[in-house]
Amino acid sequence: MPEHERDDQEREFDLRWADRAELKEPSARARMLAARWRENPPEPQPFRAGPDHVGPRRSSWVSTAIVLGCVAAIILVLGYARFRAPY
Questions:
Q1: Res. 2: pLDDT tops 60
Q2: Which of 62, 66, 80, 83 gives 58 a disulfide partner, CB atoms 3.0 to 4.6 angstroms apart?
Q3: What tens digit of pLDDT does each residue of 3-59 get?
Q4: Can you give the pLDDT at residue 60?
């Protein structure tokens, strides 16, 4: 059996062995947060932000006007650049 096939089979075996482990160690970030929260537990947060957390919304026509204005500006700049470029 070629070397690379044996390595693939060994790696597959190792992955299956690791997946069957009864105890899995948490990630470094999970350990860090657990230690931090033991000393200073986080405040409860609502599932969704209340109305006081929502910023001002623009109406859809204002957003549309901004996008169309940017597209028009890009078209004008590209047209001007092409007009100025030597052939």
A1: no
A2: 62
A3: 555 566 666 667 777 777 777 788 899 999 999 999 999 888 777 766 665 566 667
A4: 81
In this structure, what token pair is assigned to residue 64? 């549309």
Q: Where are the beta strands (DSSP E) in the chain?
A: none
18's tokens: 């690791």
**Per-residue DSSP letter, 48:** S
Tell me the C-alpha distance between 87 and 77, whole Å. 18
CA trace torsion 3, 9, 14, 15 (10° rounding) = 130
Report DSSP state, residue 51: G
Furthest-apart CA atoms within the chain: distance in Å: 71
Write down the residue that tokens 């059996």 correspond to: 1
